Amino acid sequence: MTLNLTEKTLEREGCTLHYWCGGDPDGVPLVFSHGAYIDHREWKNELALTAAAGYRVLGWDIRGHGQSRPGDFTMPAAVADLIALLDREGIQKAVFIGHSMGGNLHQEAIFHHPERFLALVTEDSTWNFQKLTRAEEWGIKLGVPLIGCYPYQTLIRQMAAVSAAGEASQAYLREAMSQLRKEEFVQVMREATLCLHEEPTYTLPVPNLLIVGERDTTGNIRKVAPQWAKREPLCTYVVIPAAMHCAHMDQPEEFHRLLLEFLAKVRE
Questions:
Q1: Which H or E element spans position 109?
Q2: Distance (Å, rounded) from C-alpha 76 to C-alpha 73?
Q3: 6-267 has which fold?
Q4: Which of 153, 144, 246 is nearest to 188 (CA)?
Q5: What pTM value is reported for the model?
Q6: What is the pLDDT of residues 176-212, one digit of tens each?
Q7: HSE-CB for 218 with a 13 A CA cutoff
Q8: Where are the domains of the chain?
Q9: What distance lies between CA 41 and its chain's CA centroid?
């Protein structure tokens, strides 16, 4: 499945954002945000799928990633960038589909800008508003400095290997990650952890689909997902069998079925 997307840019503080638009201009808007260290290309199949189904689609390279470099990544800046993209394109409300860090970004965005959200699809992301255990807090504090000491190419190879099962998917992940310098990689990791803040009574105000790969071993994602889903009254929670951290790459047919079914309900 192929899709012709229009590439655009938006000048933001210290960064030229690159983003891509397509699909039906009158369709329900969908915004796709990628995971840490990679770029919008991880969503190429889903952009094509949903555009063909009559949706208006937008994918982007988050600051400090892909073609939106140079640009220092922080979560508050990325949230502000996301809202600026919506304003630039005249999108009042959208469905946001995020993978890993992209899902964390959307959680922060809806926390501060709930009026821009129709619905939320979160794939293999941790829960921003959880109460971390003491061990998890120490793991975050120690993890970033330790990663900084790791041989970079070995780190990239190992991260790709535990993120997706297929060689083609791993090759893409290695190539995308390799675009970042090690200092950029470490900065993204450090800043991404700062989005975690306990909110004991907060629940998402829109319908949300939470998808987790059965074999996702990244952080505490697999462990915390059931707790998160139980908190959310509007949540549909699905574990995809035989999928790792990139569930949409490992089991695309199942992921696409779940996505289209959820979007159809939102569009009703």
A1: helix 101-112
A2: 9
A3: Rossmann fold (3.40.50)
A4: 144
A5: 0.97
A6: 999 999 999 999 999 999 999 999 999 999 999 999 9
A7: 27
A8: 6-267
A9: 12
